[in-house]
Here is the input.
Amino acid sequence: MADTIRNVAIITKINNAEAETAAERITNLLITRKIRVYSILPLTLENSTSVVTPEDLKNIDLDLAFAVGGDGTTLKAFRIIPCNTPLVSMNVGGHRGVLSEVGIDAIESAIDMIVTGRYFHDLRLRIQASINGSKVPPALNDIVFTRVNLTKTPILSIKLMDDEIKQRMDGIIISTATGSTAHSYSMGGPVLYEDMGCLILNPIASVNRMPGLVIPAIDIDIKSTHDAQLIIDGQEVFKVTAGQSVRISRFSMDAEFIRLKKRGMRQLTKLGF
Here is the structure.
């Protein structure tokens, strides 16, 4: 797909020298091809890039963004860049890099493939929560609804598909297929093929051993008898008071990855299988 690339943003893992060095290499390769590069604070580069804040990106016509770090950097980047901006995830200074496309050894070849249009778009479902109607940032991996008071186990009311489930439990994980390798997986959930348009509901310490559920990407309403917190992609936390309604819905715009190679169950290799 030979799109013209003119403006590119780069975000890196914070305070990681390896990721910052890789960002310098990426920037130099792009600049030699007359592509303007914006480094997102706190990243600052010595070469001829424009340093911007996440807020500044709203006024820039970006063609592409690079996330250089681990999966956490990629998740953060998708909440920062404009929703219609495709992203290249590079695992540099990260751990497993389940979401990443390339590592540090393939930077030059990856840039060459991208600027010559030898790539494709990989769309991923995202979800978004609203607390009493007030929306929070979308999640690519998961939204975790969990209790605050560790000495009291709340009763959760979960409404979906005209049914209501009431269970005493510590919380529940609402995961996308992309996030099936994250918190849900650590709680014994299944690994789903990433392109599947469905959600996993994985209860946390359910008293009556409520099973995990795989459901279509429909609206889910949750209430708790006690104060709780909502955790977005393991990075942002929002308070939910007892009795407040939380609705979780499919986000209006999918996350858009740039991919260079077709792969099957790419997650299994990253997980060590």
Remarks:
- Residues 127-250 form a domain with the Tumour Suppressor Smad4 fold (CATH 2.60.200.30).
